[in-house]
Structure formats: C-alpha cells, structure tokens
Amino acid sequence: ALFNLVWLLYDFYKLRTFAEESHALNRAAFLDHLTGIPNRHGLDVVFETYDSPESLEHVACYMVTITNLKEINQTMGHVVGDQMLKDFSGILESVGDTFGVVGRNGGNKFLAIFENCTDDQLNTFLARIADRVKQHNQSPSAISIEYRIGIAKNSEEHLAEITQLIALAYNRISDETIAH
Fold it and tell me: Considering only CA atoms, which of 123, 124, 143 is closest in space to residue 133?
C-alpha cells in the first residue's frame, strides 16, 4: 500500500510538471517573446473566429507601425529599439485591451481587432493612444516614439475575409507620422 501511495504521489507530481510545461509552451507559441502580447500565431487564432462575412460585419482593424524604429536601431542599437517596442506595446495593450485584441504582427507592426466598433470608440482609442505616446515621449529618459495608423472598418467595407480587412488597414497606413 505504501508503495502504491508513493507512485500515486509521483504521478501527481509528473502531471503537474507536464501541465506547467504545456502552459509554458503555449505562451511561447502564441505570445511575442519580447513584448508579451499576442504574436502573429496568437493573432491567427483570433482570426479563425471570423470565418464568415456575418462574423466580420462590425469588426474594425487597426494596423500600427512605429516609423522611427529602424533609425533608433541603427543609431542607438537594438537594445534601445527593443525597449521602444516594449514601451509601445505596453501602451497599445493598456489602451486596446478595453476595446478588443491587440498583438504584434512582427517587426515594427502591431495589429488591433475590435468587434462592434463605433466611431466614438474609434476616436477614443486613437485619442488615448496619442495621449499615452505624448506622455511617454515627454519623459526625460524615453526614446521618442513616432507611429502611423491604418484603419479599416468592415461596417463600411463589407469584406468577406479578415485577411482582406487587415490588408486594407495596412494599405491605409497614413503618410503622416504621428509624434508628440
């Protein structure tokens, strides 16, 4: 009986270890290692929920790009550029999480997907991002963040696939860089 109890305890220990390892692997697969927000693979899981034109009816997509990251990496180094990415993703996540899903699409690009997005919500999101970046940039120790945003609202576009909406937002990234 004692022998069986020891093996039972060992089995519970191994199950717990496997569960922890599985959780760590899921985090590694779906979260950006630098910023901690969903990566492209994590965003793909979200995209799968939009499998019909009806599911996309009131979805808005925002593509955001940091325009001065390449310059920062070249002049100040990748450590500073990585910190800029972390800072910006923190801003996007803290603002965007109340509206929908925010993730890093790779490199200097970020993506936000919001369901049932109204014009008021859109304006609030944009204003909050601008305000938070302005606050960040005014900090004496901060590296100034410059960014551009492209927006596509499917309530206006009536596209059939989420990839079309994302591509449209990407193509609409403004020529005007926003820096505060």
Answer: 143
Q: Which residue do the tokens 């926003």 mark?
A: 178
Question: Could you write out the three-class secondary structure of the chain?
Answer: CHHHHHHHHHHHHHHHHHHHHHHHHHHHHHECCCCCCECHHHHHHHHCCCCCCCCCCCEEEEEEEECCHHHHHHHHCHHHHHHHHHHHHHHHHHHHCCCCEEEEEECCEEEEEEECCCHHHHHHHHHHHHHHHHHHHHCCCCCCCEEEEEEEEHHHHCCCCHHHHHHHHHHCCCCCCEEC
pLDDT, tens digit (0-9, with 9 covering 90-100), for 86-128: 999 999 999 998 899 999 998 999 999 999 988 999 999 999 9
C-beta of residue 152 within 8 angstroms of C-beta of residue 60: yes
pTM score over 0.90: no
Lowest mean pLDDT among 5-9, 26-30, 148-152, 156-160: 26-30
Question: For residue 8, what are the β-bridge partners?
Answer: none
Per the CB < 8 A criterion, the answer to whether 129 and 95 are in contact is yes
